[in-house]
C-alpha cells in the first residue's frame, strides 16, 4: 500500500460524495495503490449511511464509526491507528483542503521528505475573528515553544510511515497532532496553497472546541505559562514586600497613617487576581495530567466495515426492526 488517506467526518453529508469523487480522480491520476479511511466522529446527519454506501461500492474505502463525537484530533488519530500506507495523507472533508494538492505533497514527499505540510497562503470564507485568533494563536505558540510548530498550517499534510510509527508511540489524551509531528523531526518541508471556503455544511469547530484545542497545543508543548505564573508571583511579592516596609515605616517611625481603605482594596483585589490566574494556569496542566493518568481509551468504535474482531469489541447485536427507522440519537461531544 503506497498511500493512506485519512478523512475525519463530522456532519459532512453535503461534502462526502464530492470529496470522494475528487479524491478518486486524484488517485487515478497518481497511479498509486491507496486506501481511504473515513472516520465518522459521531455525525448526526446522514454521513454514516453515505460512508457505508461508499465502502460497499469501492474496496479502497474503509470507515470507522465512533460511538459519539470525540473531536477532530481523535478522529485523525483513529485513522492513523489503522493506516497501512507507506505514506499517509490527512485531509479535511469539507474541501477546504483541495485534494488535487495531494499530487504536489506526494511529489515533494518522494524527494525524500518525511513530512510535507500544506501551508495556507490565504484563506477564504472564514470570519475575520477566526482568522485573527488563528493567526495570533500560532504566533504566540511559536514564541513559547522550543520546537518549531509551523505557522498557518492545519493538519493537511503527508507523513511517512516512520513518522506515523513515532506518533503511535505518543499516548497523550489531548492531541495536538501538528505539534507532535513537528516534535518528531526528520526532514520536513511545505507546499503553499490557497485555502478555499467550506464546500457545504458548516464548521464543526465551535469557539469552545477551538479554545480547548489551543490550550491543548500550549499545555502540550510549553511550560511557559507555568513559568509566567511563577514570575508574576515573584514580581507581585516584590512590590508587596516594598509596600510592607513602607507601611511599617509610616506606622512605627512617622506615626502618620491614613485610614487606607483604597490602598487596602487595591492590594487585595490585585493579589487575589494574580493568585487566581496562577491557580487557573496550574489547573489547566493538572486537568491534562489527570486525563492521562486515567488512561482511558482515546475513542470507542461503534461500527466499521473491517470486522468488529479487529477492535476487540463484541459484534453488534441484531437490530430490531423498529429501531432501524428510529432517528439516531447521540450525546453531544465536548
Ligand atoms: N471534524 C471532526 N470532529 C469534530 C469537528 C470537525 O471530525 O468534532 C472534522 C470535519 O468533518 C472536517 C475537519 O474535522 O473534516 C475540519 O473541521 P472543520 O472544517 O469543521 O473546521 P474548520 O475548517 O472550520 O477549522
Ligand atoms: Mg473546514
List keywords for this structure.
334 residues; alpha/beta; 11 helices; 8 strands; 16% strand; binds uridine-5'-diphosphate; binds magnesium ion
Strand content: 15-25%
Helix percentage: 40-55%
Bound small molecules, which ones? uridine-5'-diphosphate, magnesium ion
Characterize the biggest β-sheet: 8 strands, mixed
Mean of pLDDT: 84
Q: Main sheet: which strands, in order across?
A: 7-5-6-4-1-2-3-8
Strand and helix layout:
Layout: E1 3-9, H1 16-30, E2 34-40, H2 47-57, E3 61-66, H3 72-82, E4 87-90, H4 101-110, E5 115-123, H5 128-144, E6 153-160, H6 161-168, H7 177-184, E7 188-195, H8 207-221, H9 224-252, H10 261-294, E8 301-304, H11 321-325
Parallel strand pairs: 1-2, 1-4, 2-3, 5-7
Antiparallel strand pairs: 3-8, 4-6, 5-6
The structure holds uridine-5'-diphosphate and magnesium ion (MG).
Descriptive report:
The chain has 334 residues and is an alpha/beta fold. 49% of the residues lie in helices and 16% in strands. An 8-stranded mixed β-sheet has the order 7-5-6-4-1-2-3-8, sandwiched between helices. Strand 2, helix 2 (47-57) and strand 3 form a beta-alpha-beta unit. Helix 9 (224-252) packs antiparallel against helix 10 (261-294). The radius of gyration is 25 Å and the shape is elongated. The protein starts with a strand and ends in a 9-residue tail after the last helix. The mean pLDDT is 84. Magnesium ion binds next to loops. The site of uridine-5'-diphosphate has 18 residues, from strand 1 and helix 3.
Amino acid at each position: 500500500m503506497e498511500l493512506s488517506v485519512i478523512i475525519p467526518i463530522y456532519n459532512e453529508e453535503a461534502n462526502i460524495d464530492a470529496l470522494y469523487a475528487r479524491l478518486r480522480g486524484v488517485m487515478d491520476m497518481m497511479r498509486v495503490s491507496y486506501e481511504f479511511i473515513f472516520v465518522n466522529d459521531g455525525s448526526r446527519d446522514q454521513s454514516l449511511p453515505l460512508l457505508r454506501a461508499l465502502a460497499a461500492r469501492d474496496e479502497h474505502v474503509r470507515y470507522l464509526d465512533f460511538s459519539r463525537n470525540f473531536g477532530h484530533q481523535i478522529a485523525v488519530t483513529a485513522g492513523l491507528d489503522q493506516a497501512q500506507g507507506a505514506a499517509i495523507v490527512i485531509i479535511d472533508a469539507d474541501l477546504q483542503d483541495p485534494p488535487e494538492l495531494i499530487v504536489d505533497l506526494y511529489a515533494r514527499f518522494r524527494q525524500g521528505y518525511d513530512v510535507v505540510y500544506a501551508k495556507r497562503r490565504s484563506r477564504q470564507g472564514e470570519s475575520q475573528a477566526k482568522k485573527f485568533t488563528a493567526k495570533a494563536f500560532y504566533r504566540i505558540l511559536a514564541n513559547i515553544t522550543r520546537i518549531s510548530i509551523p505557522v498557518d498550517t492545519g493538519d493537511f499534510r503527508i507523513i511517512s510511515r516512520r513518522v506515523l510509527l513515532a506518533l503511535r508511540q505518543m499516548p497523550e489524551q489531548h492531541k495536538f497532532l501538528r505539534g507532535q509531528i513537528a516534535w518528531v523531526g526528520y526532514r520536513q518541508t511545505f507546499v503553499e496553497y490557497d485555502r478555499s471556503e467550506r464546500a457545504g455544511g458548516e464548521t464543526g469547530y465551535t469557539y469552545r472546541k477551538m479554545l480547548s484545542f489551543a490550550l491543548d497545543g500550549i499545555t502540550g508543548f510549553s511550560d511557559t505559562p507555568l513559568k509566567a505564573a511563577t514570575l508574576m508571583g515573584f514580581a507581585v511579592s516584590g512590590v508587596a514586600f516594598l509596600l510592607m516596609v513602607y507601611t511599617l515605616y509610616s506606622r512605627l517611625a512617622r506615626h502618620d497613617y491614613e485610614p487606607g481603605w483604597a490602598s487596602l482594596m487595591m492590594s487585595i483585589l490585585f493579589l487575589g487576581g494574580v493568585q487566581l490566574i496562577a491557580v487557573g494556569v496550574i489547573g489547566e496542566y493538572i486537568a491534562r495530567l489527570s486525563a492521562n493518568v486515567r488512561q482511558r481509551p482515546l475513542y470507542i468504535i461503534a461500527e466499521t466495515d473491517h470486522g468488529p474482531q479487529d477492535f476487540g469489541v463484541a459484534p453488534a447485536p441484531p437490530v430490531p426492526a423498529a429501531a432501524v427507522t428510529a432517528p439516531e440519537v447521540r450525546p453531544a461531544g465536548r
